């Protein structure tokens, strides 16, 4: 059972999360800090939380009215302080020289720090005083490393060798395909799933609702619409000490009815910035970890879409995917120096999603060309079928959401349930027969997998190379 102070932190986090999500593009580190406090409450110590709160001060102006309870609940909880006083330090604060917000006053969550320069916790069994003051830099809270298990464990009773559990990171695992795949992998008993999600509490509720065993998953905060959040996730994962055996790039933004573009924290059009650039940076930063894994079948999987594959009927539904000469991508997709669309054309929310999926499939092939021979890592993409009931379509018009599932189920026969799609993705993660690299996997009506053919644009090696090089520049790798 969780102690009262942990419940208090979760209540405060729930209280602020809706507003935090709205402004997370500008303040991703605040969301990360609060998420980490909820995620790892038992290994936080009071000095470390105090330092984190001091760093959060930089972002306090926009959250003051909503977040007063967070500070009050923590500082007034004797259980929190007594528990913290008995725990060893397991977190470190690393300063960074860059922040995304300016400090207009010295108040934290509506409580003036200047009025309380020192706080005495002696009544809570902490005999020292903690200094509170303004900070000039942001903080990243990272977990210390834990011991990594070897790939092969000895069975002393039988004298046999058994394969250790694999570790798979799945982005967007709080709903839809990602959640279904996490459940399918966890149920085998052979995998531990890192659910990389924007909303920690949503992911926790989803995992419990799906019946995933607690020991089979870990939730870590990741917002692919922020490159800072991607880097922080990578740092946190590395510090966890876990091996990385499989990375599944699944999360996606789809805004089919949008008339004007939205943008990521770094100024990129939201669909391409999240679906392609966020995953591109994540994959590049974790590639070395995967290469160092001793797991016998390491894989990097990027979820594609039939809508980006123009040699299919679905891929020819207007607006069709078309990357053109990449002039928009070269200009930064920011609608300042260039169009928000990859091809430099007028914005279309549905096309932006389809274009991002073409980038996903081209990126997978470029990973294969550059790294498969030297690393042995399997690089693959897939289209698991039309999950017509998925939340991916939540921004479509109501009539579409009503008619699309029966249309796919009874007319096109392309409908698959989230459960079936999750099993197909889990198959690409772990099936020994699907180790061929550079393949775009699909399934026939008998649910048999096969390597599908991609359209000329989605298999254009020269365009894939250009996208790779432009993406490196945009995410700061070149």
TrEMBL record:
Its main location: plastid. CDD domains: LPOR_like_SDR_c_like (cd09810). InterPro entries: NAD(P)-bd_dom_sf, Prochl_reduct, SDR_fam. Pathway: Porphyrin-containing compound metabolism; chlorophyll biosynthesis. Belongs to the short-chain dehydrogenases/reductases (SDR) family. POR subfamily. It comes from the Eukaryota. It is found in: Plastid, Chloroplast. It is an enzyme of class 1 (oxidoreductase). Phototransformation of protochlorophyllide (Pchlide) to chlorophyllide (Chlide). GO terms for molecular function: protochlorophyllide reductase activity. Keywords: Chlorophyll biosynthesis, Chloroplast, NADP, Oxidoreductase, Photosynthesis, Plastid, Transit peptide. It comes from Forsythia ovata. One of its GO terms (biological process) is chlorophyll biosynthetic process. It catalyses: chlorophyllide a + NADP(+) = protochlorophyllide a + NADPH + H(+). This is NADPH-protochlorophyllide oxidoreductase. Its EC number is 1.3.1.33. One of its GO terms (cellular component) is chloroplast. PANTHER family: PROTOCHLOROPHYLLIDE REDUCTASE A, CHLOROPLASTIC (PTHR44419:SF19), PROTOCHLOROPHYLLIDE REDUCTASE C, CHLOROPLASTIC (PTHR44419). It holds the Pfam family adh_short.
């Amino acid at each position: 059972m969780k102690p009262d102070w942990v419940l208090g932190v979760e209540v405060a986090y729930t209280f602020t999360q809706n507003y935090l999500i709205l402004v997370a593009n500008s303040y991703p580190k605040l969301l990360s800090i609060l998420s980490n406090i909820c995620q790892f409450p038992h290994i936080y110590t009071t000095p470390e939380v105090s330092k984190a709160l001091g760093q959060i001060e930089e972002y306090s102006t926009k959250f003051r009215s909503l977040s007063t309870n967070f500070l009050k609940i923590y500082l007034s909880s004797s259980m929190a302080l007594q528990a913290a006083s008995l725990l060893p330090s397991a977190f470190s604060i690393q300063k960074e020289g860059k922040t995304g917000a300016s400090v207009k006053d010295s108040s934290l969550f509506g409580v003036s720090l200047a009025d309380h320069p020192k706080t005495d916790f002696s009544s809570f069994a902490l005999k020292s005083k903690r200094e509170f003051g303004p900070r000039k830099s942001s903080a990243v809270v990272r977990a210390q490393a834990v011991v990594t298990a070897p790939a092969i464990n000895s069975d002393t009773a039988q004298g046999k060798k058994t394969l250790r559990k694999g570790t798979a990171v799945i982005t967007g695992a709080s709903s839809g395909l990602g959640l279904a795949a996490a459940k399918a992998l966890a149920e085998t008993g052979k995998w531990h799933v890192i659910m990389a999600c924007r909303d920690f509490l949503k992911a926790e509720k989803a995992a419990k609702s799906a019946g995933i065993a607690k020991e089979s998953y870990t939730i870590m905060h990741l917002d692919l619409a922020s490159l800072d959040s991607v880097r922080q996730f990578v740092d946190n994962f590395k510090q966890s000490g876990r091996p990385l055996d499989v990375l599944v790039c699944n999360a996606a933004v789809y805004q089919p009815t949008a008339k004007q573009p939205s943008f990521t924290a770094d100024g990129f059009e939201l669909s391409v910035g999240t679906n392609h650039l966020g995953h591109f940076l994540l994959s590049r930063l974790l590639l070395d970890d995967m290469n160092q894994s001793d797991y016998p079948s390491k894989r990097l999987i990027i979820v594609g879409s039939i809508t980006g594959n123009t040699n299919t009927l679905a891929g020819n539904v207007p607006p069709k995917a078309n990357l053109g000469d990449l002039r928009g991508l070269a200009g930064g997709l920011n609608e300042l120096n260039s169009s928000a669309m990859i091809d430099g054309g007028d914005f279309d929310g549905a096309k932006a999603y389809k274009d991002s999926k073409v980038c996903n499939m081209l990126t997978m092939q470029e990973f294969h060309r550059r790294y498969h021979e030297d690393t042995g890592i399997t690089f693959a993409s897939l289209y698991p079928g039309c999950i017509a009931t998925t939340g991916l379509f939540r921004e479509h018009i109501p009539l579409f959401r009503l008619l699309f599932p029966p249309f796919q189920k009874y007319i096109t026969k392309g409908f698959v349930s989230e459960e079936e799609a999750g099993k197909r993705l889990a198959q690409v993660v772990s099936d020994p027969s699907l180790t061929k690299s550079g393949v775009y996997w699909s399934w026939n009506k008998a649910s048999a997998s096969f390597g599908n053919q991609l359209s000329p644009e989605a298999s254009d090696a020269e365009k894939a190379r250009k996208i790779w090089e432009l993406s490196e520049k945009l995410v700061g790798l070149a």
